[in-house]
Amino acid sequence: MTQKIDVVGLGPGPARLLTLETRDLLMAGNPVYLRTAVHPTVAELREWGCAYTSFDSLYEQAPDFDKLYAQIVEQLLAEVEAQGRIVYAVPGNPLVAERTVQLLLERGPQEGVEVKLHTAVSCVDVVLEALGADPSEGLTILDALTLEADQLDFRRPQLVTQIYSPTIASEVKLTLLDRLEPEYPVTLVRAASCADQQVESLPLEELDRVTWIDHLTTLYLPPGGPETLAPLEYLRWVVARLRNPEGGCPWDLKQNAQTLRKYVLEEAYEVVEAIDQEDPDALCEELGDLLLQVYLQSQVAQDEDLFVLDEVALGIAEKLIYRHPHVFGGPTLETPEEVKRQWEDLKALEKAAKAGDQKLSVLSDLPAALPSLTLAEKIGRKVAHVGFDWPELKGVLAKIEEEYQELLEACEQDEPEAIFHELGDVFFTLVNLARWFKLDPEDAMRQTNARFVRRFQAMEAALAGRSLKELALEEWDILWNQAKEQVG
């Protein structure tokens, strides 16, 4: 005979809200198990002569809810194996915030047990009735025991169930305060549809001060303004508002991808500066400024029907997953070197797929807008990858000497065009030297610039009011050496 568990809901409160089907199943004579007997309907079940076993004793023994629910499910499976057919009753509707039911639906078929769900009135129905709220324009239902700030969406009403104690209410309040002001209006509903129903609206900051919170309590969060959106969505709203032809900002409305280009570069460099300064507050601010440029460029593109921000985010997410198969289900890689090789191989496959039948150069995908030193390093790295490189360091040094001599000759002949050409060659070979030693030429130049500025400013401070133009060369030299000792 097939083993079967009938899972029924006791509804939100009074027995009058039980379905006829559920009442018949409870009174049919099969063993009845309650997740908890702490429910308004249970007293009436006893009056009807319904015998039951509850799992309330397990609540005192289990170290946490995950283990508690798993233990309940194991006992139910053991009982149905012994009895053949049983009834498992839970508060409300079996499919609303009932973890044991979800576990049963997973484990039952694995054990050859049929798990049959029987619908019921849920707490959501009676809470909405108590509030006089219409969910037709959207409603989010959340579980207080697993609530995270990133689940919240204040574009529509939200119900938080299982606010069964002031402690849980306090934890929920702290989570909500990540997104809301302390004065944000919320509503608590207790024992909806019961004779002792309570409904109270209050500021969020007072949520855990309510003394009558118990296992029948639900929290209602009304929809809010744009400032209650998740931070990234809030920024999207702000940028869209700035670009709105009706009441937007005249300056933002005039911008396009090209006019905003310089700000992308400026903000990226300011991020780098904050990183170099090891200033987390500045880095946080500068990353925000750079993020604004991403949102602005995406909004401009959306306004021109080119693409939208979600496509930007989805594209990079899919690219990261594709290039990290060792993380997302592929073969495991053990070392950073293996990861880097795989990354380069996958990039090459992507490039080949884009090219189709057209043969691509090793240097076909270089971003021309890169800073010159960075671009030179990237060129050197790419051609070295296919073998165009000096086998030993002495070859690199000899090439630097050769280009330097050619620069000297151009200078001696006073040929500006040749000097310009040879100077670039010297720079390129020096970048190649940096690559050999795995050094970033941009970082090296940036640090040299910063070092020069520190020393020069130290010299200015040492002048004690004298004009820089008054100094003789020998004095400059003395001050420079003093500055080197003082500031490095």
From TrEMBL:
One of its GO terms (molecular function) is methyltransferase activity. SUPFAM superfamilies: all-alpha NTP pyrophosphatases, Tetrapyrrole methylase. Residues 255-328, 396-455 form the NTP pyrophosphohydrolase MazG-like domain. GO terms for biological process: dATP catabolic process; dGTP catabolic process; dTTP catabolic process; dUTP catabolic process; response to stress; TTP catabolic process; UTP catabolic process. Gene3D superfamilies: Cobalt-precorrin-4 Transmethylase, Domain 1 (3.40.1010.10), MazG-like (1.10.287.1080). Keywords: Hydrolase. Residues 7-208 form the Tetrapyrrole methylase domain. Signal peptide: none annotated. NCBIfam families: mazG, PRK09562.1. PANTHER family: NUCLEOSIDE TRIPHOSPHATE PYROPHOSPHOHYDROLASE. This is Nucleoside triphosphate pyrophosphohydrolase. It comes from bacterium (Candidatus Blackallbacteria) CG17_big_fil_post_rev_8_21_14_2_50_48_46.
